[in-house]
From TrEMBL:
<comment type="similarity">
    <text>Belongs to the EPSP synthase family.</text>
</comment>
<feature type="binding site">
    <location>
        <position position="176"/>
    </location>
    <ligand>
        <name>3-phosphoshikimate</name>
    </ligand>
</feature>
<dbReference type="InterPro" id="IPR036968">
    <property type="entry name" value="Enolpyruvate_Tfrase_sf"/>
</dbReference>
<keyword id="KW-0057">Aromatic amino acid biosynthesis</keyword>
<feature type="binding site">
    <location>
        <position position="33"/>
    </location>
    <ligand>
        <name>3-phosphoshikimate</name>
    </ligand>
</feature>
<protein>
    <recommendedName>
        <fullName>3-phosphoshikimate 1-carboxyvinyltransferase</fullName>
        <ecNumber>2.5.1.19</ecNumber>
    </recommendedName>
</protein>
<keyword id="KW-0808">Transferase</keyword>
<dbReference type="InterPro" id="IPR001986">
    <property type="entry name" value="Enolpyruvate_Tfrase_dom"/>
</dbReference>
<feature type="active site" description="Proton acceptor">
    <location>
        <position position="327"/>
    </location>
</feature>
<feature type="binding site">
    <location>
        <position position="28"/>
    </location>
    <ligand>
        <name>3-phosphoshikimate</name>
    </ligand>
</feature>
<dbReference type="GO" id="GO:0008652">
    <property type="term" value="P:amino acid biosynthetic process"/>
</dbReference>
<feature type="region of interest" description="Disordered">
    <location>
        <begin position="1"/>
        <end position="27"/>
    </location>
</feature>
<dbReference type="InterPro" id="IPR013792">
    <property type="entry name" value="RNA3'P_cycl/enolpyr_Trfase_a/b"/>
</dbReference>
<feature type="binding site">
    <location>
        <position position="28"/>
    </location>
    <ligand>
        <name>phosphoenolpyruvate</name>
    </ligand>
</feature>
<comment type="function">
    <text>Catalyzes the transfer of the enolpyruvyl moiety of phosphoenolpyruvate (PEP) to the 5-hydroxyl of shikimate-3-phosphate (S3P) to produce enolpyruvyl shikimate-3-phosphate and inorganic phosphate.</text>
</comment>
<keyword id="KW-0028">Amino-acid biosynthesis</keyword>
<feature type="binding site">
    <location>
        <position position="129"/>
    </location>
    <ligand>
        <name>phosphoenolpyruvate</name>
    </ligand>
</feature>
């Protein structure tokens, strides 16, 4: 089932060369943060290039429920009139974050040091995901939480009336947990210290500094130590959201595996904490070129050109690279199936608690397509069958997971027989224009029965 409405089965067939330019939408992580930080600033934040996927629309709706004025002016153009740090009003109804772990976790963090209560829920995928990783850090600031067994949604958070600053060591590599703790620390007096052992995407730190908060980041033996001074007055910003590298991954990878392809994906955010996939693809021998490297809105940006690559070799992906490509393992495992030799992905157990258990979803779907897979709790190994070597001819379960659906559809553009997904509906959470955009490049996608 899709999160909103009936399932949309879809089939991808072997496609002619993919050619042309792919304008992918705005970055999902930065879009959520633009709305949330905009809502915590005093005055009007202007955003262009906002991703208008369902996940971000749900965050916009939530920010309205907490008292911010969020206005849509035109495609990607939004303003947020913020209520200031600590200024959130108590929502009148349950906050439904749909499919979005980032939305719910960041918002829980942000409201947890305000003297209000809020109840959160989401779709079946989000209701199955662990929230203890958020309720633990926010408890350190004085918030209380009441959820279902196993720390699942629906969950009520009672914000701390008298928040205290905290020192929190993030136990798993998670930008969502780090960000929830930092957003909680915003309304605690004094210094909050958040420590991550492995560097994860740093948009929250960058954007907090941009909004005028005092944030210090140090690399120490303990890890990355982030020190935030609480209760600043955040200054409204003008934000240009770069295009999402995690969405760019789909046209890029499809071009690498579909014979004769040559696709340009302009204006992609290449923050080093997000760009691990592209390094990995280059190590595999992908014909991937970065053109016109530049900086836009404080983030490195480039145009990516991807060409069909018939000599990609499987590699051992360094586990320490995982946080910088955590959302890209599903599409990488499809590329790996079309490479020569074995691709070994270790240190990836966080994939088991994403929108779906992504190790299991990819393993079962690829096996159904004729690919040999090995897996354990923390590892996925794909035995490549070479360009054009994947039989296909199967239907993969999308499991309410946009990236699983898009990964199998890209695979179906290059496999011998078509590949279907049982529900392409979740794609709308992050990449609403996936279908027309891929079709404009030459992909053969059909809505099936
Ligand atoms: C995100 C962090 C990652 C990522 C998600 C977006 C963010 O999740 O998978 O798609 O915007 O902070 P984790 O923090 O759970 O690794």
């Amino acid at each position: 089932m899709s999160s909103h409405g009936d399932p949309i089965p879809m089939t991808a067939r072997k496609s002619g060369p993919l050619k042309g330019e792919a304008q992918v939408p705005g970055d999902k992580s930065i879009s959520h943060r633009s709305l949330i930080l905009g809502a915590m600033a005093v005055g009007e934040t202007k955003i262009t290039g906002l991703l208008e996927g369902q996940d971000v629309l749900d965050t916009a709706k939530a920010m309205r429920a907490f008292g911010a004025e969020v206005t849509h002016h035109g495609p990607g153009e939004w303003t947020v009139h913020g209520v200031g740090v600590g200024g959130f009003a108590e929502p009148e109804d349950v906050i439904d974050c749909g499919n979005s772990g980032t939305g719910v976790r960041l918002i829980m963090g942000a409201m947890s040091t305000c003297p209000i209560s809020a109840t959160f829920t989401g779709d079946a995928s989000l209701r199955s995901r662990p929230m203890k990783r958020i309720t633990d850090p926010i408890a350190a600031f004085g918030a209380k939480s009441y959820g279902r067994d196993g720390g699942r949604l629906p969950m009520t958070i009672v914000g701390a009336a008298e928040p205290v600053p905290a020192r929190y060591v993030v136990p798993m590599p998670s930008a969502q947990v780090k960000s929830a703790a930092l957003l909680a620390g915003l309304n605690a007096p004094g210094e909050t210290v958040v420590i991550e052992k492995e560097a994860t995407r740093d948009h929250t730190e960058r954007m907090l500094a941009g909004f005028g908060a005092q944030v210090k980041v140090e690399d120490t033996d303990e890890g990355r130590v982030i020190t935030l001074t609480g209760q600043p007055e955040l200054q409204p910003q003008t934000i240009v959201v770069p295009r999402d590298p995690s969405s760019a991954a789909f046209p890029v990878c499809a071009a690498l595996i579909v014979e004769g392809s040559d696709v340009l994906v302009p204006g992609i955010g290449l923050n080093p904490t997000r760009a691990g996939l592209f390094t990995t693809l280059q190590e595999m021998g992908a014909e991937l070129v970065f053109e016109n490297m530049r900086e836009e809105g404080g983030e490195p940006v480039a145009d990516l050109r991807a060409r069909f690559s018939d000599n990609m070799q499987g590699i051992e992906v360094p586990p320490e690279r995982a946080p910088s490509m955590i959302d890209e393992y599903p599409i990488l495992s499809v590329v790996a199936a079309f490479a020569h030799g074995k691709t070994v992905m270790r240190g990836v157990k966080e994939l088991r608690v994403k929108e779906s258990d992504r190790i299991d979803a990819m393993a079962r779907g690829l096996e159904a397509c004729g690919v040999t897979i090995e897996e354990d709790e923390d590892t996925l190994i794909v035995h490549g069958m070479g360009p054009g070597g994947v039989p296909g001819g199967a239907t993969a379960e999308a499991r309410l997971d946009h990236r699983i659906a898009m990964s199998f559809l890209c695979g179906g553009m290059a496999s011998q027989q078509p590949i279907s997904v049982d529900d392409a509906g979740p794609i709308a959470t992050s990449f609403p224009v996936f279908e027309p955009l891929m079709e404009s490049l030459g992909a053969q996608l059909v809505r099936s029965e």
